[in-house]
Amino acid sequence: MTLIPLNLFVAHDGASKRQHITCVYRCGNACSKPVPNRSANAYFGDIARAVSRRTLLRAGGVTVLAVGAGSVLAACAGEQAPAPGTTAAPYAAPRAGMDFASVAPNTEDAVVVADGYRHAVVISWGDPILPDAPAFDVTRQTGAAQRGQFGFNNDFAGLLPIPGRRDRFLLVTNFEYVTPEFMFPGYDAAAPTREQFDVEIAAVGMGVVEVERTADGLRPVIDALNRRITADSPMLLTGPAAGSDLVRTDADPTGRTVAGTFANCAGGVTPWGTVLSGEENFQDYFGAAEGSPPPPPVQADQMARYGVSAEPTALRWETFDPRFDLTRTPNEPNRFGYIVELNPWDPQSTPVKHSALGRLKHEGATVYVTDDGTVVAYTGDDERFDYMYKFVSSKKMRDGTGPDAMAHNMTLLDEGTLYVAALSGDVPAAQIDGSGRLPDDGAFRGSGTWIPLLRSGADGQGESLVDNFTAAQVAVFTRMAADKVGATKMDRPEDFEANPATGKVYLALTNNTKRGTAGEPAADAANPRNENKNGQVLEITDDHAGTAFTWELLLVCGDPQAADTYYGGFDKTRVSPISCPDNLAFDSHGNLWISTDGNALDSNDGLFAVALEGPQRGEVRQFLTVPLGAETCGPVVTDDLVTVCVQHPGESDEHSLDNPQSRWPEGGTGTARPSVVAVWRDGGQIGV
Ligand code: FEO
Ligand code: CA
Ligand code: CA
Ligand code: CA
């Protein structure tokens, strides 16, 4: 086994290594703008809330002593005291699924995989997936061509076995955003062309591609199920928002038929065979020309809470289509920010936007099914100081894959209750000083409550559970409803994933460099570091269909040699450094796999496996890294194959298509192209 060298990397002064251009096109420079959550909702750093009911019960009659003693201990322990749980335990052999040599941090312009594994590109931006689509030619792009080709900046991926067809799968991906400087030769950001706009609206959305498992990975197949969904494909809006005044436009007076999806980030595959995709940074696409009259003032606070502003956008879509112009179509942004459900088994099916799951910057949604068939969908709102949500269905999942079961199951996310999370800590407040120092009892842990916001019923009926909000308002301005009920501000909630083996639920909190800065909430037990550059991973023991949970931090990410990191109590001299956790997946052995976005430790992003149980709990091993400038997304981990999406290879402020930083995957004088990569081991399984 190769243990990775340590102490090679020092964190940047800034946040992650994510480039400014990524911020411009992906999240509209959210990081350099004011935090949109101006609610007074507390983090829970005050003693009254920090000592939770659980702690009180545990402490019995000596509550005051428990708080006081904690403070004294904190004062005595000092910064460098060895924290319980971090002492090096005798090394245990890796858990099944993690027996591979960790990939060392690096800055190669290549995909680097663990020794003994092979990898190959499955499909890249521009590859034809429909029968009449042309081959990729970066100098001859058209909207029509792109509509039949694989889209740009693949993020989520699902790999769905095709029933009855050995070695065949549907690869369902989404395409988050476009970066025209890295798509079009000679791109002029001040004067984008109509043709470029046509390509861009066709390059985002989703894609369905049949793939075949071969000796060399996965091979795309042109098949009848293949499909592209773009920024103008018809979608059905369901739930309490549908048909309301908030979502009607001149082009859609019914408020039920939305054109397209974009800004799709993570997602999930449902047990009934559909794919969920989160509409995340939708605000980037709506703007107004310089000097336009302001849109109706009634929406000003609502727009601000979602970061929508009546200014020219970076892409200038508002100059090509009035639905992106806020002064002409002020309700159009209210039709984005939902969870999209796609039935990939029917190429004619209309994707559904489920407003019962609320409107936010949905990172994605993943589903857990309880023993009685109740469906629980977890979804994070990826913004600094925004919230964790879940939806609990009122109907039960129906078994089977026939049309009746599919029709029923595709309404599961329309009827039920939407909740937002309020957390409290078991850690005395005095032990949370923003440094990330481990509390005296060895872990950051606490409990929490899911607060109901919206009860949705059949045919778009809804009941608001928030004072002075209608059901439609909760569905469309969910963030503001959650502000009102006292949800807990978190460090950018990204992907959720439930462990199929234990039912525990994991959440990646990617980073939050504003935590603890002037005018912003300070650290608390679940978000324990101020100016948090490296993020953390939360482990939740949830009463899935109920409203109570307990939680513990599994990882406080960053340089393992730094005092502010915590690797589940595992010996930190034996772990791969991980930073900025983003997307989550599970292998069949019960190990958590994490892909990263914006590694703040001066290495390329990568994919990591983390042990959750036994003496190896907290052991982190890096399985692969992606090329320069790229982000690792959409991991799928099967017993004999891993796939990842390589998003935005080569993206950097100093570079462009004409002056590339990366030539991956084409090499030579070729073009950097976002791609899906497969990794496998000849004749062997992953990590065993
Ligand atoms: Fe698209 Fe939450 O990252
Ligand atoms: Ca993400
Ligand atoms: Ca992210
Ligand atoms: Ca990502």
From TrEMBL:
<protein>
    <submittedName>
        <fullName>Phosphatase</fullName>
    </submittedName>
</protein>
<dbReference type="InterPro" id="IPR008557">
    <property type="entry name" value="PhoX"/>
</dbReference>
<dbReference type="InterPro" id="IPR006311">
    <property type="entry name" value="TAT_signal"/>
</dbReference>
<dbReference type="Pfam" id="PF05787">
    <property type="entry name" value="PhoX"/>
</dbReference>
